[in-house]
Amino acid sequence: MTTIELLERTRAAWGSIRSASAEEKNRLLLAMAESLEENSGDILHENAKDMEAAKGAISDVMLDRLALSESRIHAMAEGIRAAAALPDHVGRALAQFTRPNGMTITKRQVPLGLVAIIYESRPNVTSDAAALCIKSGNVCMLRSGKEAYRSSRAIVTALKAGIESAGGDEDIVNIVEDTTHASAQALMTADGLVDLLIPRGGKGLIRACVESATVPCIETGTGICHVYVDRDADLDMAVKIIENAKTSRPSVCNAEEVCLVHRGIAKEFLPKLKAALVDKRKDAGLVPVELRLDEAAAEIIPGTAATELDFDTEFLDYILAVAVVDDLDAAITHIQRHSTHHSDCIVTENQAAADRFVDEVDSAAVYVNVSTRFTDGGEFGLGCEMGISTQKLHARGPMGLDELSTYKYVITGSGQTR
Question: Which pTM value belongs to this model?
Answer without folding.
Answer: 0.88
